[in-house]
Amino acid sequence: MTKKKISELLTIAKDVERSTGWKVWKMGAYKKDGKTELYLSYHGQGIDSVVYNGDYEAITDFEDIYQDWISRNLYKESAINLIQQRIDLINSPSYFN
């Protein structure tokens, strides 16, 4: 997962919250079939079917990091680095041991 994609996800979430009033409910990444995907869901809206059905090999949530960033408790680069660490963890062979 690239830092650019993580940055884009954070920006999209923030822009949607501002423009629609929807609030982020779940945000994270999952690993399925060896591929890592980001997901984002808002209160009252749908969620990725893979997440809903639990059809993944590994998952990590990071809406807490997002909330710290929009609350100005973290710089965006710090938030991206923390998210990248969580994603790296689910991609690590030791995650499954």
Report on the structure:
The chain is an alpha+beta fold. It has one domain. The protein is 47% helix and 22% strand. It is built from 4 helices and 3 strands. The protein has a 3-stranded antiparallel β-sheet. The mean pLDDT is 94.
Give short descriptive properties of this protein.
97 residues; 3-stranded antiparallel β-sheet; 4 helices; 3 strands; 22% strand
Layout of SSEs?
Blueprint: H1 3-20, E1 24-32, E2 35-42, H2 49-53, E3 58-61, H3 63-70, H4 76-90
Helix pairs in contact: 3-4
**Distance N terminus to C terminus?**
22 Å
- Our Rg estimate from Cα atoms comes to 13 Å
- The protein's oligomeric status is single chain
Helical fraction: 40-55%
| Total E-strand runs | 3
Q: Strand order within the widest sheet?
A: 2-1-3
Order of helices and strands: HEEHEHH
Shape: globular
Provide the number of structural domains.
1
Write down the overall mean pLDDT: 94
In short:
The chain is an alpha+beta fold. It is 47% helix and 22% strand.
